[in-house]
Amino acid sequence: DAGVTQSPTHLIKTRGQQVTLRCSPKSGHDTVSWYQQALGQGPQFIFQYYEEEERQRGNFPDRFSGHQFPNYSSELNVNALLLGDSALYLCASSGGLRGQLNTEAFFGQGTRLTVV
Amino acid sequence: GDSVTQMEGPVTLSEEAFLTINCTYTATGYPSLFWYVQYPGEGLQLLLKATKADDKGSNKGFEATYRKETTSFHLEKGSVQVSDSAVYFCALLNSGGSYIPTFGRGTSLIVHP
What we know:
The structure holds two protein chains of two kinds.
Chain A: E1 5-7, E2 10-13, E3 19-24, E4 31-37, E5 44-50, E6 53-57, E7 64-68, E8 74-78, E9 87-94, E10 106-107, E11 111-115
Parallel strand pairs in A: 2-11
Antiparallel strand pairs in A: 1-3, 3-8, 4-5, 4-9, 5-6, 7-8, 9-10, 9-11
Chain B: E1 3-6, E2 11-14, E3 19-21, E4 23-26, E5 32-38, E6 44-50, E7 56-59, E8 62-65, E9 75-77, E10 86-93, E11 102-103, E12 107-112
Parallel strand pairs in B: 2-12
Antiparallel strand pairs in B: 1-4, 3-9, 5-6, 5-10, 7-8, 8-9, 10-11, 10-12
């Protein structure tokens, strides 16, 4: 089992650019959540996708958008990058067969985004 | 809303010392409780969990007991190793809520040889 995989591992972008981060969930999981973790902080929830729809959203601006594909993989897009968007972006998968939702989250290694 | 409070870090210990990291929570209903560990430069790994009151989660020598009466889930280890140096996050998942984990701010553990 490959677990949750994220790409790329590191990324450097210029202020104002756009970025796309990718995530493949753990086998058998159908729910993907994205988190932003600033240095020295806990993960902050961005949004969650289930059945290709955004189900929950945290307190992040519309510059942050996402998508889930039929194979449950997901993308996080951030437009008009700001210096403050520099962080570790974590993807977590959960859930499983028959719509079971109350399961623990399994995290990927994260994508370290640096905005210069 | 739901919340998790962890003790401030860093916690600095010598190898083979006893570890306690405090975690208390506020939630409606009957949440599941988790401890995650994050090693430098990596994502979060599930360390242990407990799904109902009085359950004890354990893994790799770490233990935590779900105490509903004190709304706590303190992490303990009898003898820490240098390799345990990491950031530890307490989290809850509320079955009656949004299915989104609520995390504490994390507690950094530094173990010296």
